[in-house]
TrEMBL record:
Species of the source: Companilactobacillus heilongjiangensis
Protein name listed in UniProt: Beta-phosphoglucomutase
Entry's Gene Ontology molecular function annotations: beta-phosphoglucomutase activity; magnesium ion binding; sugar-phosphatase activity
GO biological process entries: carbohydrate metabolic process
Keywords noted in UniProt: Isomerase, Magnesium, Metal-binding
InterPro entries noted in UniProt: B-phosphoglucomutase_hydrolase (IPR010976), Beta-PGM (IPR010972), HAD-like_sf (IPR036412), HAD-like_SPP (IPR051806), HAD-SF_hydro_IA (IPR006439), HAD_sf (IPR023214), PGP-like_dom2 (IPR023198)
Length: 222
């Protein structure tokens, strides 16, 4: 029986995944690494330093910079990202997501945040959605980021639930892998070829409703 929902933030609740991509693209250009859609998809959901390392690996530059230089580049990306967040408000909540979250709350499901982003408290605050979250995982306390299961295991734990009693929602391939590894049921939102490992797929957030999830669970018998 499902008792809890574990939410990714960027690309699931708000359109902020596009801002992360834009800021990484900007940094990749500066580092002379060619940006591709595939690289963009690989970065989705992945934490800050892991993302920078993926970009450098993609451009065969993994041994070019010192740790200090890498930290500086990661900070530069974050400053660019924060500039893109200027003026972020409720209008950038993805279609249907506020109603969906309210509906979960009204049905007494527990809700935890499983975002890799250290900026997630700020983003939730700007979207005025913080009040719906019973718990959240602080990504700074993780040993391993997505695709490792740790963040979803911890999110279930934060609600005092077993992962099997939870549904996780993700727009990123690394995130779906993380949910699946934890034992929770994975909902992939976006291109089903990219999110092919999800237990349940929706093309966009507008399709994500309790009724549609229940229907999909019946069909798949997950
Ligand atoms: C994830 C995003 O939610 O957070 C990634 O999907 C981002 O794109 C990651 O790199 C880390 O975010 P931050 O804000 O801590 O740099
Ligand atoms: Mg995401």
């Amino acid at each position: 029986q499902i008792k809890g929902f574990l939410f990714d933030l960027d690309g699931v609740i708000a359109n902020t995944s596009a801002y992360h991509s834009k800021a990484w693209h900007q940094l990749a250009d500066e580092l002379g690494v060619t940006w591709t859609e595939d690289l963009g998809n690989q970065l989705k959901g992945v934490g800050r330093m892991d993302s920078l390392n993926l970009i450098l690996k993609y451009g065969h530059k993994e041994n070019v910079y010192t740790e200090d230089e890498k930290v500086k580049y990661a900070e530069e990306k974050n400053e660019n990202y924060l500039n893109l967040l200027n003026g972020l408000d409720k209008s950038e909540i993805l279609p249907g997501m506020e109603d969906f979250i309210k509906d979960l709350s009204a049905h007494h499901y527990l809700i935890s945040l499983a975002s890799s982003s250290k900026n997630s408290p700020l983003v939730l605050e700007k979207l005025d959605l913080r009040k719906y979250f019973d718990e959240k995982v602080d990504p700074a306390t993780l040993t391993h980021g997505k695709p490792d299961p740790e963040i979803y295991t911890r999110a279930a734990e934060s609600l005092k639930l077993k992962p099997e009693e939870c549904i996780g929602l993700e727009d990123a391939s690394a995130g779906v892998t993380s949910i699946n590894g934890s034992g929770a049921i994975s909902v992939g939102i976006g291109d089903p070829t990219v999110l092919k490992d999800a237990d349940i797929n929706f093309n966009n957030t507008a399709e994500v409703t309790l009724a549609n999830i229940e229907k999909a669970m019946d069909n798949k018998k997950v």
